[in-house]
Specification:
By secondary structure, the chain is α+β, with helices and mostly antiparallel strands. The protein is about 35% helix and about 25% strand. The strands form 6 sheets. Strands 4, 5, 6, 7, 8 and 13 form a 6-stranded antiparallel β-sheet that branches. A 6-stranded mixed β-sheet has the order 16-17-18-19-21-20, with helices on one face. The chain has a 5-stranded mixed β-sheet with strand order 3-2-1-14-15, sandwiched between helices.
Length: about 500
Amino acid sequence: MSRKKEVLINVSPGETRVALIEDGRLSEVIYDRARPDDDAPSACRLESHVNSIVLGRVTRVLPGVQAAFVEIGLERAGFLSAREARRIAVDYMGEEPNSRVPPISELVREGDEVLVQIIKDPIGDKGARLTAGPTLPGRHVVMVPNSNLAALSRRIEDEADRERLLAVIARLQQRGRDQGIQSGFIARTAALDATEHELEEDADRLWQQWREITERRAKASPPTHLHRNLGILALTLRDHVDRDTIRVLIDDAAAFAEAKRYAQSVLPDLAGRIELYQDRSPLFHLYNVEDEIDQSMEGRASLPSGGWITVETTEAMTSIDVNSGSLEAGCLAETALRTNVEAAHEIARQLRLRGIGGLIVADFIHLETPECVEKVMAVLRAAFANDRTPVQITEMSEFGLVEITRKRVREPLGRLLTGPCPTCRGQGRMRSAGTVANDVLRRVQAEAQAAPGRAIRVRVAPEVGAWITARSHSVLEPLRERVGQNLRVDVIRHYARERFDVEAVREPA
C-alpha cells in the first residue's frame, strides 16, 4: 500500500535529528549527537558505526561461548561469534558456507589480524557485534565481496520482478568478473524502480569502495577503520527516501547544500524533493514531533477510541499491556476486537518510534473466536510491514499473549534521551545531560532569532555545563557564530540537571 512519506531533518550545533513521517504521523526518529572535542578524530558527530569495516586484532578467544573479542578501536572490544567468523575459513578453504560452523578456535587465535564489519552498535555495556563477512550497501544493491551470492530483499515478492532482478544480478556479476572482481549482490527494495544502468552505476561505486578498502588494508595496522558508515544526511537519503517520499525538509542551509550534492550524485530523480525549511516556527513543530518524542518517554500510549497500551521495558524484555479504557463498542466482544485492532497498529508504531528491540510480549484483551484472533494478527503483521528492522511474530496464545522479537540495532530512544536518576540510585531515569544540553542549544537559537542584537545569557546545571564545555570547539563556537550575538553560559551549582534559563538581555552601553 502506498504511503505519503515526509522526512524532517533538524540540524543544531549539538545534534542532528531525523523525523520520519508516514501518513501524517511520526513513525521513527533518528539522533546523531555530537561527541566531546577530544574524542572526535575527524568529525564532531557520534555517528552509528554500523557497516563500518575495521582491520581488528583478536584479543581473546572463548571456546566456551564459541566467540572471540576483537579490538576495533572503540571503547569496548567487539564480539565475533563463530557463526559470523566462519567466512574466514570459507575464504581460506575456497568453499561455500554450509550448515557446519567450525569451532571458534579453528577460525581465529589471539593476536590474529581480522577484517570485520560492525553489524550492531555497542548497546549499554555490550560491545559492537561483528561479522567476518563484510558487505557494502548501495542505493539499489548490497555487494558481498568474494562471493557468488545472488539474493533479493524479502519485500520483493512479485515473481516477475524476482526473475528480472536475478537476471540483472547475474549480468552484474559477470561485469565484475570481467574487471577481475568476484562479488555477490543482494537487490534492495529500491532496485524495483531502478534501470539496469542505474544498478550498474551502483555496482561500480561499490566496487571502487572495495578497491579502496583493499588498498588501505595493505598499509594498515590494527585497529584501523578502513571504511566508515555514511554521515546521517547521506544515510537518511539513501535508506529512507523513496518513491513514496513527497518531500525532505532541512532547516539548515549548509546541511541542505550537502544533501543536494549527495542526491544529485546518487539519486538525482529525488533531488528535487529536498527543500530548505525557512519558516520561523521550528521544523519539529510540524506534526507535533517534539510532543510525540516527549510522549514516547512515557509508559502509556493512547488509542483513538479511548483505550491505551502500557509499555514497560526491563533488561530482559519489554511487556505491553492492552487496555480498553472508556471504550464501549456495543457488546464486550466488539469492544475487545476494536481495542485490539487499534492496539496492534500502535504497538508496531511505538516499538519503531522508541527503537525497542529484543523480546517483546504483548498482552491483548481476550478474544472469543478464532476469526477475531486472526483479524488482529493480520493487522499486527501488516503494521510491521514497513519496519526496516527484522521482526518475528508468534501466533496468539489462548491467554491473549503474542511474542515478538525485533532485532536490536541501536540504543532505544529512552536510553539515549535519559540517564539514571542520581537521587534514587538508578532505580528511575530522567533526561540525560546531553538531552537537556541540546534543548538549551535549541532555545538559544530561538531566543536569538526572537531578539536579534541582544546578548544571550544561559544558566545551566553543572553536568549540563560540563557536556557543553566538553564540546566547546565542535558545538559552542559554531553556535556563537550562528547566532551572531554575545553568548555566555554560566553554571549554577544548585541547579538540578533539568533546570536551565535562557534569556536575551540588553548589554550596557
